[in-house]
Amino acid sequence: MRYFFPHAENTICDTYNLNSETFTTMYPNSARLTSLACIVVFFVFIEANAVIAVTEILKDPVGGESTCPGGECLEFVEVTNSGPDTLVGENLFLTDGVTVDSIMAWPTALSDDLAGIVSRASLPPGRVAVIVDPQYTDAPEQDRFALAERTILWTVNKTSLVGKLSRDKGLLLYRGTRFRIDDSIAAVLDHGQKAALGQRLTHTSPPSAREGFGLVPSHLLFAENNWFPNPSKVNAGRYSALENGWLLEYRLGFVTSHEATIPCTVAVHHQSGHAPEGARWELKRTDSFLPIREGVFAQDKTPHRFIVPVPTDTVPYQIVLTDGGRTQSVDLDLSAAWLPSSPIKITEIFPRAPDNLPEWIEITNTSSMPINLCRWRLGTPEGNDTISTAPLIIAPAEYMVLT
């Protein structure tokens, strides 16, 4: 007999639409109560409220650790400025706590395949910088990243990024000297770790991390951040969450069996540092133009945080921001906090397969809401396993085969 369990940890599983291969689990009970909360956003604030964050990191490129292509030339760290002020590039350093590298603009003329890429020391508002190995252009052209136009290219003064990145290595971008931290600008660290020079910084890659896939943060406004493999594999120079000048994230709150709504804390930040005049928000069903709840932002400093009660039913909802004809939206993953009765059914199994074939289970989502299977578990009386530590969505009426 097999059992399916939802995850018990207080863990955020933010939604990416991934192509499923072998993951899933299900929940057989009538309702699910959790203490998960709806995503807000975590920033490191520096210099006149500029908001700087590491938005992607590639620790394990395809190839050997000491070869090119591979770890010798294709590691990178992506940094995004979502604040209103320019990050000046003077006295910037990247460290793993032991090795310290100074940050510098790409020092040589850019080749034809880097047309549109900018070599400069500063990082203006709304722009993205990618810190690459000094040997980056030694990689064959077909192995280099498809950097977005206007990406700012940085490198370090040594032969590799902090003596080569690794699956458990943490990073700190700071201003100061090789021996002193004056301002911590952005960090990739395990939760609870304090950045300091002289001790190794750690950042444990998720079990789902794979060779050649960058790691991206689940959100930017919460200190307890999760990292996932990039659904697009590598997206250097493209932080799409800031395309319209807004960062929009949410977190679901506590829900009990007698409540008809889930409290959803929403956090929004505008690149200018203030909400533009007339900017407003709406809670909508994704299949309707009519808002269920709405409001107007005060014209003071962002980020703004507010709580929206979301009905506990099986229709999909989204938060929509409107600003002078531009919109930004995020779909709410209600399945992280509440589920209807028995939404996932086992529809077929293939046990005791021959040696050359895998066993498999087919499931389907019989509800009318998308369900995130992140950190659900598949088990038997002898034990159980976590199926996916990354977001994994099964849509209404969708089938999924698990091996």
Strand order of the largest sheet: 2-3-4-7-8-6-5-9-10
Beta-strand content estimate: 35-45%
Number of strands: 26
Tell me the series of helices and strands, N- to C-terminal.
EEEEEEEEEEEEEEEEEEEEEEEEEE
Topology (elements, then pairings):
Elements: E1 3-5, E2 44-46, E3 50-58, E4 76-81, E5 92-95, E6 100-105, E7 128-132, E8 152-156, E9 171-177, E10 180-188, E11 215-217, E12 227-229, E13 246-252, E14 261-270, E15 280-285, E16 291-296, E17 304-311, E18 317-323, E19 326-331, E20 344-350, E21 360-365, E22 371-372, E23 377-380, E24 383-386, E25 393-394, E26 399-402
Parallel strand pairs: 7-8
Antiparallel strand pairs: 1-23, 2-3, 3-4, 4-7, 5-6, 5-9, 6-8, 9-10, 11-12, 13-14, 14-17, 15-16, 15-18, 18-19, 20-21, 21-26, 22-25, 23-24
Structural commentary:
The chain is mostly beta strands. It has a nine-stranded mixed beta sheet with strand order 2-3-4-7-8-6-5-9-10, with no helix packed on it. A four-stranded antiparallel beta sheet has the order 16-15-18-19, with no helix packed on it.
Task: Explain briefly what this protein structure is.
With 403 residues, this protein is mainly β. It is 0% helix and 35% strand.
List keywords for this structure.
403 residues; mainly beta; nine-stranded mixed beta sheet; 26 strands
